[in-house]
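Researcher: We're teaching a course module on how sequence relates to structure. For the next exercise, students receive a sequence and then see the predicted structure as tokens, so they can try to spot secondary structure elements on their own. Here is the exercise chain.
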Amino acid sequence: MIDYDSLNEQIDRVEESLAQKRYGVNAEVPMSDGRKLGYGKRSGKWELYVVSRNDEEESTLRNSSTELRIEAARHLPALLAALKAENVRVAEEANEAINAYATFCDDLETS
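Model: And here is the predicted structure for the students to work with:
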């Protein structure tokens, strides 16, 4: 017998743990059936979600079928790696933007 409550509790726990890390970026990884597992901000809340095979529909992982919730667990390490990589990429871009703003202001002050 499947313990649905425990399955959903663990999904909630993963979402809470990821939110505490404050990556601040979205990421998606492929699942074996053509769908994607993602983590991102949806309706003001950071959560795990599943993207359909045709990229047209998203649903929260919590509201997905039991089979998808089970399969998604196997893809969590890849999703974490993708989140970390995306966080680094965005941080580098943000630092470049900060420097560009600072240079622009410095140039204005000296002209």
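Model: If you want an answer key for the exercise: The radius of gyration is 18 Å. The first strand starts at residue 27 and ends at 30.
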